[in-house]
Design brief:
This protein is 35% helix and 13% strand. The protein is α/β, with parallel strands linked by helices and 401 residues long. α6 links the parallel β4 and β5. The chain is globular. The two termini are 34 Å apart. Bound molecules: pyridoxal-5'-phosphate.
């Protein structure tokens, strides 16, 4: 089995054979969006150049901007918070649950201020947050819920596919993700008005675009008319190129197979680590289907050995690189000690309840992040995954389970 097959090649050639004629329109993009929407049980899917632009557009289309706050988790990739800043709003960090490592509803509640307008729950490593309490909270406070599912394809929550739970969901097709077109992204939503605003934002504010794939409201007569007004709002050009859409279409058609590769590897690691007292997996409770973008274990060696010791031994025994979790976003140099509160008074004074991006903000995440070991799951060759799981078992045996 390979990540890229003849199907991807065939669709790319179809695009090239079309000579990029405008009459060919955006046929691949349309097919991709229709297939993606059907796969995720949503009415609309809007393709993007990446999974950061997606969130920028969705927040802007939801009317979120300067003066507003959006609650995000710190254990994610910085794009979750960057997108809030790109929309002109302020990211506010809430802590995570110590077992599931996803947004803790109680911490979200505590982070709500009169300026809060949205929440971005992140399905970190492929596991959905507990969405029911977050959605209830959002309904109570009239908040926009944008799922960041960059790492979660075909994950499930209470029997529903992740990506259909909030007001909108964002996916990434960056090269490390379950499905890829090198770079790329998608927004799903069931809200027609939101979908249309998102697509307009992604397409230079063009008047002609509609919510649904390829359903522009334009005729040749109209665009040839000197009086035609094209741009109804300020927009970005965040569109996914047709060549990438061709690859992403094939990957969407093969998505179950692509996800199954990762789940298979994760099960092997889980088996190898079962019963080890000092390694704990992310808790996927009943009713959750984990998509395992990566398989992650929390190492708590009780001081007998460190994260670095474990990694060195794992590699020495033939293991591939283990990745650490990203730094918590608010501790990255781009954020730490800074203020992004656009509602600062003219004299620069911050509102008394503005969040400071400093150590101590999210204690659960701060304790967890340095302990995480991320194991690769994208092994197309089953025996390679088995070898890695075997190395994990031998590393555990070395330190004593
Ligand atoms: C959780 C999360 N959100 C957002 C992104 C941003 O996606 P992209 O790289 O496509 O901009 C990524 C991955 O890169 C991610 O892992």
């Amino acid at each position: 089995m390979n990540r890229i097959t003849d199907l991807e090649r065939r669709y790319v050639l179809d695009v090239l054979d079309g000579q990029f004629r405008t009459s060919a329109g955006s046929a691949m993009t349309r097919r991709l969006e229709e297939r993606f929407a059907a796969t995720f049980g949503c009415r609309y899917a809007i393709s993007f150049i990446n999974g950061t632009a997606t969130m920028h557009a969705a927040l802007a289309a939801a009317g979120i901007g300067p003066g507003d706050e959006v609650i995000v988790p710190p254990l994610t990739m910085a794009s979750t918070a960057f997108a809030v800043l790109h929309a002109g709003a302020t990211p506010v960090f809430a802590d995570i649950d110590p077992d599931t490592w996803t947004l803790a509803p109680a911490s979200v509640t505590a982070a709500i201020t009169p300026r809060t307008r949205g929440i971005i729950p992140v399905a970190i490593y492929g596991l959905s947050p507990d969405m029911a309490p977050l959605l209830a909270l959002a309904a109570r406070h009239d908040l926009f819920v944008l799922e960041d599912d960059a790492q979660c394809f075909l994950g499930t929550y209470q029997g529903r596919v992740v990506g259909s739970l909030g007001h909108a969901a964002s996916f990434s097709f960056q090269s490390s993700k379950h499905m890829t077109s090198g770079e790329g992204g998608m927004i799903t939503t069931n809200d027609a008005g939101l979908a249309e605003r998102i697509r307009r934002f992604n397409s230079l504010g063009y008047a002609a675009v509609g919510a649904a794939a390829g359903k522009g409201k334009i005729t040749r007569e109209m665009i040839q008319d000197p009086a035609y007004e094209r741009h109804t709002s300020v927009g970005w050009n965040y569109r996914l190129p047709e060549l990438c859409a061709a690859v992403a279409l094939a990957q969407t058609e093969r998505l179950q197979e692509l996800v199954a590769v990762r789940v298979r590897a994760a099960r092997l690691y889980a088996e190898a680590a079962r019963g080890c007292a000092w390694l704990t997996p992310q808790a996927a409770l009943d009713g959750y289907g984990h998509a395992y973008w990566t398989y992650v274990l929390k190492l708590d060696g009780g001081g007998a050995f460190t994260w670095y010791d474990f990694r060195a031994k794992y590699r020495e025994l033939g293991g591939d690189g283990i990745y650490a979790a990203w730094q918590l976003t608010y501790l990255e140099p781009a954020f730490r000690g800074k203020h992004f509160a656009p509602q600062a008074a003219p004299n620069g004074a911050m509102p008394a309840d503005a969040q400071a991006y400093e150590p101590g903000l999210c204690p659960v995440a701060e304790s967890l992040q340095p302990k995480l070991l991320q194991f690769k799951t994208n092994y197309w060759d089953a025996s390679a995954a088995e070898r890695q799981a075997d190395v994990l078992a031998r590393t555990i045996a070395y330190f004593g389970s």
